[in-house]
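Researcher: Quick one. four chains, 1456 residues in total.
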Amino acid sequence: MSHNSFGHLFRLTTWGESHGPAIGAVVDGCPPGIALTEADIQPFLDKRRPGSSRHVSPRQESDRVRILSGVFDDGAGGGPVTTGAPVALMIGNEDVRSKDYEAIRDLWRPGHADYAYDAKYGLRDWRGGGRSSARETAMRVAAGAIARKVLGDGVVIRAALIQLGPRAIDRSRWDWDETANNAFFCPDAQTAAQWEADLDALRRDGSSTGAVVEVHASGVPAGWGAPVYGKLDADLAAAMMSIPAVKGVEIGAGFAAAAMRGEDAADEMRRGADGRPAFLSNHNGGVLGGISSGQDVVVRFAVKPTSSIRTERRTLNRKFEETAISTKGRHDPCVGIRAVPVGEAMMALTLADHMLRHRGQTGA
Amino acid sequence: MSHNSFGHLFRLTTWGESHGPAIGAVVDGCPPGIALTEADIQPFLDKRRPGSSRHVSPRQESDRVRILSGVFDDGAGGGPVTTGAPVALMIGNEDVRSKDYEAIRDLWRPGHADYAYDAKYGLRDWRGGGRSSARETAMRVAAGAIARKVLGDGVVIRAALIQLGPRAIDRSRWDWDETANNAFFCPDAQTAAQWEADLDALRRDGSSTGAVVEVHASGVPAGWGAPVYGKLDADLAAAMMSIPAVKGVEIGAGFAAAAMRGEDAADEMRRGADGRPAFLSNHNGGVLGGISSGQDVVVRFAVKPTSSIRTERRTLNRKFEETAISTKGRHDPCVGIRAVPVGEAMMALTLADHMLRHRGQTGA
Amino acid sequence: MSHNSFGHLFRLTTWGESHGPAIGAVVDGCPPGIALTEADIQPFLDKRRPGSSRHVSPRQESDRVRILSGVFDDGAGGGPVTTGAPVALMIGNEDVRSKDYEAIRDLWRPGHADYAYDAKYGLRDWRGGGRSSARETAMRVAAGAIARKVLGDGVVIRAALIQLGPRAIDRSRWDWDETANNAFFCPDAQTAAQWEADLDALRRDGSSTGAVVEVHASGVPAGWGAPVYGKLDADLAAAMMSIPAVKGVEIGAGFAAAAMRGEDAADEMRRGADGRPAFLSNHNGGVLGGISSGQDVVVRFAVKPTSSIRTERRTLNRKFEETAISTKGRHDPCVGIRAVPVGEAMMALTLADHMLRHRGQTGA
Amino acid sequence: MSHNSFGHLFRLTTWGESHGPAIGAVVDGCPPGIALTEADIQPFLDKRRPGSSRHVSPRQESDRVRILSGVFDDGAGGGPVTTGAPVALMIGNEDVRSKDYEAIRDLWRPGHADYAYDAKYGLRDWRGGGRSSARETAMRVAAGAIARKVLGDGVVIRAALIQLGPRAIDRSRWDWDETANNAFFCPDAQTAAQWEADLDALRRDGSSTGAVVEVHASGVPAGWGAPVYGKLDADLAAAMMSIPAVKGVEIGAGFAAAAMRGEDAADEMRRGADGRPAFLSNHNGGVLGGISSGQDVVVRFAVKPTSSIRTERRTLNRKFEETAISTKGRHDPCVGIRAVPVGEAMMALTLADHMLRHRGQTGA
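Model:
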C-alpha cells in the first residue's frame, strides 16, 4: 500500500529528494546469513553514476553507499552477514546546485512531474525535481545488489540498451561482453559507434532522445510467480513502468505478438539433454500464466526523451499564466542509458520477492 | 500480498476455476451509499460473454451475476445501496465440458500455463485451464462495473480494438460510436469489415491471432497516483499485464517515445478556456511522474494469439516424454476481442483504488 | 489493507451479513497438495454452531459449508487436494428472521455496533446486525480448519473457557478431555456444573455475562514470528481482539506480569532430555521478542457480556431522540462460549500465516 | 506484510540496532502541507529518553532527531512543511558500550529475545539486544509526533502509568497534570511518592518490576475503524502488543468485562447538550464493532519486569550447555515507565492511519 515501497516478502522502501541532505532505502525481509558489505553494492552504483562519460549528466556524485543496519560481524573472521533485520542504506547528496532550479520554482516544466505534483499535493519541492527526480533510482540499484545476493549466483541478470532514438541495434551482432566496452551498455559495437555520433549531435542541438532497454534473467527456475494478480510478468511490468520516463513494457515477443499467428507464437517443447523441458522459442519471455517457465525471463522497456532540453517549450506558471521555458541545468541527453542498471535492479528486486513468496507458499 | 487480490483501498479478490461450480469475487473497501444492483453489472458482463458472435468461443454461459453481500435496501424505495461492507459476487459455471479436456490432462499445451502450474504446485486442475482460464476475467468485468459507480459519471472509460493480427485501424477514422456496431469493438468501420474476413480465414485454418487494445479514461482529475512505486502508470501496467495473454503495455506514446526527440515529446501547456491547463499533445498518456495530469489516461496492451489451435504443435507430457498436441475445444480465435471489456474493467479498478488513496492522503 | 482480510501469505477474506443469502470466505495462499474436503471443516463448524445446547442461541443453522474452488480431484483415488489457488467457502443463511429486527431499525442498541456503523457509513444493514454480526465467525472457524491442515498434526491447538461471569475455573483441575463433556468447553468438570446453574439463572433474568477463553498451541517450533511490527504476539493480539465482543488479550502471564519481579518472570532455561531447551516456566506464553520459543503459545481473551438483553436500557434513535430498548430475539446469554472454537481458529490462522512467512524469509 | 512496518495509508517503517551507527524511520503517506520541523518531534523523544532520572537507564543518549526528507521550505517564511513524500528520520547512537555485552554473546538471556532470534535466523546481533532492543521505540515516538500533527489539535492523546509492580494508583486521585510532576508519568501524586521508595528498593536488590500503562485519546470522531479484521481495537491491540515487554492489552473495561452482567456493561446513550450522543459509561473504551463511537478511546497494556537483572538466573549457552547469568549493564528497573510515551505514540500512529483510511473510503 505504501507509495514508496516495492515488493512484499523482500521489500524495498526508499526516501529522499534530489537536493535534500541524502537519499536512502530500507530493505526489509532479507534472508539472514548472507555476506554483505558496501563493496557488494558499490560496483552497481558506479555503473549508474552520473559523470561517467560525456553522454550522461556531468553532476558529480561519488554515490558512496553506507549500510546502517541489518548486518553483523560476529568477529569470527567471516565478515558481516545479514541478520534478517532491515538493511538501511544511505547515500549523501553532494553536488547539489539548487540555484540552478530557482528559475523553475514557479513554472511547470513540460513532460516533468511538476504540474502533477502541484495538483496532487498543493506544493512541490522544486529543487532538482525533488522526490520525482531520477536520483531515487540510485537506491533501487543499491537494493538490487542485495537482491542479487539473495538470488545467488545461479540467477544471472543482465541488461542492454537496444535502441537509442530511432536507431536500433542489429540483434545478430548481440554480444553481452560488448556492453562493458561502450558508454551505452550496447551489445552491438557497430551500433554503439553510431550512437556516439548521434548523441554528440543531439547534445549540440540541446536536444534529447528516447531509448529501449532489454533485461534478461537466466537461471530462474520454473515455478516463481503466482496466478491472476500476483503474476510475475504483472509485477515486472509495474517494476519497469515505475522507473522514471518509462512509457512501455514488453515481456517476450511483446507488441509483436499481436501480429503473430498461433502456430508461430507457441513455444514448442522438447525434452532437453538434462531431461528438463527445452523450449524451441521464447515468445512468452520465460513466463507462462504468470509463472516462470525456466526459460530466460526477457523484458523490454521504452524510455522517453529527457524532458529537460535547451529548446524553448511553451508552458504555464503556477498562476496559470502562459509562458515558456528552456532548461539549462546538467542533464542526460538520453536517460535511457543510465536506466540500464536500474532495469537490472528492478528485475533482481522482483525476482527476489517472488523467490521468497514461492518458498513461503510451497516450501520449494 | 495476496496473489488473487488487486488494489489496496478498493480491493478485488477473485476465486474460482473454469470448470468448478462457480466463479466469484469479493470487492472490499467500496464506499457506502452507492446504488447498486445486478442490473448495473450485467451489461458489462454481456459485452464480454462468450457465444455472442461467430468470432468468439461458442461456449454458452449466461453469466448471470448475483450480489451476495454488501448491499442493503432499507425499504424506503431508493433500492439497494452499498453499505461499506464487502460486496460478494458469484456467477455459476454452466456449459462445462470437462470431457473435452481429458486428452490434455497429462500434456502441457504450448503457450498455456500448464507446465508452469505443474512446476510450481506439483499438480494442476486441467479442466478448462482451471485457475489460469480467462474465465476469471468475468469477475474483473463485474467488479469493474462497481468501480465505475465509485468513479461516478465524470469519469468515462472506453476501450477499442485497434489492431487484429497484422492489420491495424486507421486512426483518422476513429469513431467511438462505431465500437458498438461490430463484433470487434473496432472504432473504424472499414477495418472492422476487413477483420471479419481475416478472422473467418483464421477460423477455417484452425489458427488464431493476436491483437492490440487501447483504453481511454477521460474526466480523471489531475492528482491521482503517487510517487515512485505507487505510480498510476505502474499500477495500470500491472493491471493490464495481469490479463491473460497480454505481452506488452504502453502509456501514451509508449514504445514510439523511444524514437522521439525531446522537443516533440514534450506535452506543451497552454491556458484553456476554463482556466485549467490545456495540453497541446498527450505523449505522456495523462500521467506525469506517476500522477494524473487531467488529460485522458491512455493505455494500450498487446494480446498474443490464442494458444489453443488446431494445428499440431510439439510438446511434452507430464512424464517429460515428447509428443504433440492439437486442440479442439471451443476457443476464441482472437482472445483480444473479449479482452476489450476486460481492459476497461482494469482501468476502472485501478482508477477507483487511486481515487480513494488520493482522498485518503490529501482529503481531496 | 483490506478491512475484511486477515493474514499475509496465508490470507483469509470474509464476506456476508447475518441475514443476507449467505456468508463466505476466500482463503488465498494455501500451499498445494493438501487433502481437503468439506468433511475436514464441518466438525469445527459444528462445535461453534448455534442451537447445540440450551446455553446458546436457539437459531437453527445447519451451517453446511461448501468448498467452491481451489481443490481438485484428479480421479486417481486420493481424493481432492488443494491446488494453490484460492479456496472459496460458502454457507447459506437459513433461519433468518429479519422481522425480529424491524423494531431496532431506527434505534442504536447500546453496546452494539449500530451507532458506530451509522456514524461511519451513514447507513447500516440492521437485519441481525448485518456485517457486525458474530455470524461472520463461522467463516473464521471454517478457514481455521484449513489452517490446521497447513500446520499439520505436529501443531495442536486447543481452547477452553476458563471463566464465566465472575466464576473462574480451578486450574489444578484442568483436564483437556473434559472440554468435550460439557456445553461450555470447560476443562474443569466441577466448575462446569456450577456454570450450568449460573447460566440458567442469567437466562431467567434475561441477562447475560462475560467470559474468558484460553487458547494453547503446542508443537510450534521456535522461530516463527518476526521483529518489531510483525511480532507473533502482536498478530495474535489483533487476531483475538478482532473477535466480536473481545475487550482484552493476554500472552503468557499477561496482566499478572505487571506485579511480578524480574526474578520470578524470567523463564529459566535448562537442557531437556531431547537436547532442546527446556524452560522452567512459561510466563512469556511461548513468545520471546515476537518470535516463538518452542514452548506452548498461550493466549487468553476476555469477552464482554452479550449486549442484547431483556432488561430495558436507555438509548437514542436515529433522530437522536431519547428512548429505551429491551431486546427479545434469539441470543446467547454468554457469547464467550461459542468464542472458544473461534479463538482456536484465529490461533490456527495466525500460526499458518507465520509458518509460511518464516519459510519464505529463511527457507526453514 | 513487511515485518518492520506499521500502518497502511499512514505507514511507519523502522530500522536500526541498539549498537549500530544509528536508528531510523521512514514515515510514508503523510498528508502534504503540514508544518513540521525537528522541534515538533524532539519534546516527545525527550520524554522517552534514558538518563532522565535515577529510575531509568543511565545510558546517555541525546536522541537528537534529524529529518532527512519529505519536508520543504519554499522560503516564503512559513517554514518547512510536509510534501507528501516519505519523511525519513534518523537518530545517531552515541553512548554505545558493546563491550558490556561480550559476556552474553554466546548466552541466551532468559526473558530476552536472544534464543528466539538465534532459532529463527541462525545468528543474532548480540550488541545491546540488536534489533530486539527497546531502543527501536525512539523511532515510534518520533513518528508518533508526526502522527499527532496529522490528527490535529482536536485529538488529544495522553498516557499515564497506573500500576508499578503490585501497587496501583487510586483512580479517584487521577490528575493528568500530575503526570508531568514525577518521574513515572503517574497521575496520582501520592502513589508516585510510594513508587519512589518501591523502585529504590528494587534497584538496591538488583531486581526489576512490571507495570501497567493507560492511554487515552479524546476528540476522536465517531466512525474511524473498520469491520472485522480492520477493527480499530484490533489494530490498537497489535500496536500495543508490539511494544517490547508488553504481555497484555485491554480496551475499555478489558478483562473486568468478563465478570460483568449485560445490564452493567451496556454503555447507555442519552442526547448530549450538543445534540450528539452522550454515553453514560465507557466500558467499550470508545470502540463499538471495531469503529470509534466518539467517546474517549481507552487502552491499557501490561509490561513485564525488565529481564536484565543482577540476580543470577539459570540458562543455556549457544552450545546448549547449562550455565547461569546475571546482568550488569545499564538497565531500567521498570521498562514500563519509558513505555508511557511509546504507548501514546502507538495510539497516535494507529489513529492517524485510520483517519486516512476512513477518509479514503467515505470521503469524510
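Chain A has a mean pLDDT of 94.
Researcher: Thanks, that's what I needed.
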